[in-house]
Amino acid sequence: MARTAVIGIRIVAAAALFLAAACAAQRDPAHVETSAPPPPPAPSPAPDPAAVAANELGLVPILMYHQIVAAPSGEYDQTPEEFRAELDRLHREGYRPVTAADYISGAIDLPAGAHPVVLTFDDSTVSQLSFTDDGKPLPDTAIGILEAFAAAHPGFAPRATFYVNNEPFGNDPRALPWLAAHGYEIGAHTASHANLARLDSTGVQRELAENVSAIESGAPGARVRTMALPLGVAPADRALASAGEWQGRRYRFDAVMLVGAEPAPSPYGQVDPTGVPRIRSARGEVDFDSAYWLDRLAADPGLRYTADGDPARISFPRALAERLGGPWSNRAAPY
Fold it and tell me: pTM of the entire structure?
């Protein structure tokens, strides 16, 4: 009996020593875990393009806004409530924001079945972006509304393009850095909101070169890739709206935006980067405004751009193959 008790004590002691050693090894920084962590799950493959009626050669609405104010005085203005209602409609109908630079470069990465929309704002007014004393966007400005809407609707990214003049947003030095830091695109709109058709070639280039210089000084590191024509008016030499130089300051834009009045072609189709159409969001006060075109695209969804969920390919019904631009043919995925 005594012998059995001794053996039992030795077994218990050995087990205790083993457990103590194991615990010490786990606490020891030099201890190396020999089993590898499990690999991350593989991403889900994009669905069959036909299953989501993908059409990446369809139309893209590029919406143009000006003032967001409680008492609109212009036909292109909206109240904060109207702007919120339009964002809600876009979200419900599957639109997701991208910037103008994303659009013209074909860098559209959206979930399968979603539709790109470009939100653009002209004139850099304080109704688009103003700040509280602690540096947050005021709630009823365009940015304040868009940021709050995006926070309440995951997947609807706060993305937009702001076409600014010199001394933008009330000349608040916080504005341009804030936009750049939060992923918004800053585009050119001339230094003084000039009618470019009334200027000679030197005047056109001065307006755009000074504007780009002011933007890049106000938001170091920002690259100005697109511009919007003030009043929708091009200079006599249309090429100067896209590229030029004044006093050693050069500018070159990937796209030049018009004022109206229809959706833009797919970036993979027959788009003219020197004159990209936009849709005026105009409270029903002008023909062919945003409500008109959103109604039309909802009634005939085959017209609009619908993403396939895979940014590496361009999916579209085979019958539309002739619309595809040559530079994009290596990514074509007709069905």
Answer: 0.86
